[in-house]
Amino acid sequence: MNYSVNDVSKTFDHFTDMQLIAIVAQAEDWPHEKIYETAHKEALVEGDPWERFDKSLEPNGDGRLPTPVRLELMKAVKIHMNAGTLKRPQFSNTFFNSKFFKGAMWFLICYFIVSFFI
Questions:
Q1: Residue 17: pLDDT band by 50, 70, 90 thresholds?
Q2: Which of 17, 71, 88, 93 has the most CB atoms at less than 10 Å from its CB?
Q3: CA-angle at 4, arms to 33 and 70, nearest 5°
Q4: pLDDT, position 90
Q5: HEC profile of 2-43
Q6: For 48-105, what is each residue's pLDDT tens digit?
């Protein structure tokens, strides 16, 4: 599936640096640290050690990637989008996603409909 450049560029405006790292890490099945280091190497930009960048993302830490590194991550996401290798996030099996909850909701809906007509 191909995406237009304008659609993708508009979408990237809403992502944080860490979200871009997480998307590429999930697609590559690599740890976040390796993605961070590879993006810096590909952009030919020397960056802070991963631990320092990771801590800068804490509230009021004001951690941001250099623009060339961010552009490199965007390029990697576009490559994975066009290759179709992005994986959908897996939702955990919570109570509200369980078959029991869905069955109970259908039972209650049917019960209220039937009791309304009786």
A1: confident
A2: 17
A3: 25
A4: 61
A5: CCCHHHHHHHHCCCCHHHHHHHHHHHHCCCHHHHHHHHHHHH
A6: 888 887 776 666 666 678 889 888 998 998 888 888 887 666 656 677 777 888 888 8
Mean pLDDT, rounded, of the chain: 80
Structure-token match 């951690």, residue found: 63
Contacts 24+ apart (CB under 8 A), 33-41: 35/73, 39/65, 39/69, 39/72, 39/73, 39/76, 40/69
Report which of 91, 75, 71 is spatially closest to residue 27, judged by C-alpha positions.
75
What's the whole-model pTM score? 0.64
Q: Which residue has the tokens 């237009």?
A: 4
Residue extents of the structural domains in the chain: 5-93
CA within 13 Å, CB half, 42 = 16
Helix (H, G, I), strand (E, B) or coil at 113: helix
